[in-house]
């Protein structure tokens, strides 16, 4: 059984042609990408690294990491999104990047301990078994390598801001993008990482200011948060 929800794949497949439109439903991803890219690069410099981007979608983060000098493999199970990612890389002339339609668990069986850095951003809240994904990430990264994850906290504030606010009031995202029950508390994700044999390094929050329409990285992990881990040597 593949650890994927067909409805979630279909949802993002239907929006695939909008991935690189910075004023589309994917505008928030374009806005936060420079922040998460610099955070990743500050902890695990990307130049010359072998990097895996899990749940890459249309390739926004994958493309930017390749432009930082990494050799990047982006994987996803959303066929249309991957085709968009491949087309964009071709049109933009991005080097050192490739895409593959494969489940992360299957890739972990094929290529254990193959990557210096592994990222999995905005994906865990869309899969039936996030712990299975985390275990695969821990298998794929080399000893001493880095794993970066991001997802949504599960609390009343996150419900109000990420679903009611972002999807229904501000209409930053299509209604139904997120399912609250699938949000993951930081303590839960941290435990998944420890259970997979990863060591926690740091956690950061992503906050949005409606008045300035800007995102920032800080200590507020109430809604969006990112976790950095390492596989022990």
Number of strands: 8
Q: What's the overall geometry? A: globular
Structural class: alpha/beta
Mean pLDDT: 92
Q: Quick one: biggest sheet?
A: 8 strands, mixed
* Cα end-to-end separation: 32 Å
Percent strand: 15-25%
Please state how the strands of the largest beta sheet are arranged side by side. Answer: 3-2-1-4-5-8-6-7
Poorly predicted ranges: none
Describe the fold and architecture.
The chain is of the alpha/beta class and 233 residues long. It is built from 8 helices and 8 strands; from the N terminus they run ααβαβαβαβαβααβββ. The chain has an 8-stranded mixed sheet with strand order 3-2-1-4-5-8-6-7. Helix 2 packs across helix 3 and helix 6 crosses helix 8. The longest helix is centred in the first third of the chain and has 17 residues. The chain is globular, with a radius of gyration of 16 Å. The two termini are 32 Å apart.
Keywords:
8 helices; eight-stranded mixed beta sheet; Ubiquinone biosynthesis O-methyltransferase; alpha/beta; single chain; ubiquinone biosynthesis; EC 2.1.1.64; globular; 233 residues
């Amino acid at each position: 059984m593949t650890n994927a929800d067909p409805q979630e794949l279909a949802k993002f497949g239907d929006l695939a042609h909008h991935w690189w439109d910075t004023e589309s439903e994917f505008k928030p991803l374009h806005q936060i990408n420079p922040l998460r890219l610099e955070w990743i690069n500050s902890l695990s410099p990307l130049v010359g690294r072998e990097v895996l981007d899990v749940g890459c979608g249309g390739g926004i983060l994958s493309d930017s990491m390749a432009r930082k000098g990494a050799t990047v493999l982006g994987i996803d199970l959303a066929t249309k999104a991957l085709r968009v990612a491949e087309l964009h890389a071709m049109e933009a002339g991005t080097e050192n990047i490739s895409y593959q339609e494969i489940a992360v668990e299957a890739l972990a069986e094929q290529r254990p301990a193959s990557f210096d850095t592994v990222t999995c951003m905005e994906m865990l809240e869309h899969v039936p078994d996030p712990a299975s994904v985390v275990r695969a990430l821990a298998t794929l990264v080399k000893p001493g390598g880095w794993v970066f994850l991001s997802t949504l906290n599960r609390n009343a504030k996150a419900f109000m801001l990420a679903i009611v606010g972002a999807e229904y009031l501000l209409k930053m995202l299509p209604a139904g993008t997120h399912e609250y029950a699938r949000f993951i508390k930081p303590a839960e994700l941290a435990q998944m990482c420890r259970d997979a044999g990863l060591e926690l390094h740091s956690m950061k929050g992503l906050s949005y200011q409606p008045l300035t329409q800007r995102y920032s990285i800080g200590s507020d992990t109430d809604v969006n948060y990112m976790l950095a881990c390492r596989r022990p040597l």
